[in-house]
Design brief:
Elements (H helix, E strand, L loop, with lengths): L27 E2 L11 H15 L11 H12 L11 E4 L2 H12 L5 E6 L5 H7 L3 E6 L8 H11 L3 E5 L11 H11 L4 E5 L23 E6 L12 E4 L2 H10 L7 H12 L1 H4 L3 H17 L3 E2 L6 E5 L4 H10 L2 E2 L9 E4 L3 H18 L1
Parallel strand pairs: 1-11, 3-4, 3-5, 5-6, 6-7
Antiparallel strand pairs: 2-8, 7-8, 9-10, 10-12
Helix pairs in contact: 1-8, 2-8, 3-7, 5-6
The chain binds pyridoxal-5'-phosphate (PLP).
Keywords: Amino-acid biosynthesis, Aminotransferase, Histidine biosynthesis, Pyridoxal phosphate, Transferase
GO molecular function: histidinol-phosphate transaminase activity; pyridoxal phosphate binding
InterPro entries: Aminotrans_II_pyridoxalP_BS, Aminotransferase_I/II_large, HisP_aminotrans, PyrdxlP-dep_Trfase, PyrdxlP-dep_Trfase_major, PyrdxlP-dep_Trfase_small
Length: 367
Amino acid sequence: MSFPPIRPELAGIEPYGAPQLPVDLVPVQLNVNENPYGPSEECVADIAASAGEAARTLNRYPDREFVALRTALASYLSRDVPGEIVPEQVWAANGSNEVMLQLLQAFGGPGRTALSFAPTYSMYPEYARDSMTAWVAGRREDDFSLDLDRARALIAEVRPDVVLLPSPNNPTGTALPPEAITVLCEAVGDRGVVVVDEAYGEFRRSGVPSALELLPAHRNLVVTRTMSKAFAAAGLRLGYLAADPAICDAIRVVRLPYHLSAVTQATALAALRHAPELLGNVDQLRAQRDKTVAWLRDQGLQVADSDANFCLFGTVGDRHAVWQGLLDRGVLIRETGPDGWLRVSIGTPEEMAAFEDALVAVMKEMA
Ligand SMILES: *Cc1c(COP(=O)(O)O)cnc(C)c1O
């Protein structure tokens, strides 16, 4: 017998995660789609004061139903829809990754199936495995869009209990049109839930609607968001969803007691009060993204249209060599997506200039 006595399907598996390298070693970090702009001193002081206030009652368990935070998140989301999102439709956890795991614990499980369309977010199959949910990945088309007839046919065949789809998609940046979400929700019906992961929703190009608008039409639709990307608060660990209140009630059954600490709740509420500032650089990042897409295309590379704060480009031949060449020049990007493609997060203008210079040098060296 080998030790430790872990579940056999987990034996020998390396824990997942993008490389985390110290900034003094790699000054330009464009690998995990973080917002490059940190909070102002004023915002830092307000967050610190709120965390300090929460510290006064740390002897007590926090509000298990985090009513104040759900109310603040509901009003934040309501800005994106014609109607209103109410607090009963909102759920939150420690990052949208925890929200995703809770969804699979509640709606997946042994004998049940989760479906996505590759290339897709690399964490989903891990949560399927951890919740003992069968995992099926269909394919996106060559331009990373979804062929709706094929998607419908796959759903009829697989009969998924959970469909997981990032929009904008990670790692491609592709947003799903509302028609696609409607087709998926109708094909799945009340047999399952369709989770549209809008981690990058705030970066979508103008005219691209949010799936939040479709919530009144589909009670099996779940839209997840996070404070990790546009909101510039990846360190906070706060992800959330909007859905039918019955879906939130189902998740309550599987959540850990008091899963959102008093400090997390206070910090998230303070960050939401500073939403205009924290989201203040989103327009600049969108413009920088469009510039980066155009620049990469000028280099003769293929670039997927992006509604996110990153772009996927290819094909670069030996992508590991390109990734390594960039790293040797102090620029960390991500080896992900189809073979021969790489993903770069959008940073400050200075960081993007460093990326472009390094990429030109690496490509010249390899030619
Ligand atoms: C970054 C990302 C998230 C966010 O995860 P958090 O746990 O909220 O930090 C969720 N989904 C996708 C597709 C992502 O790329």
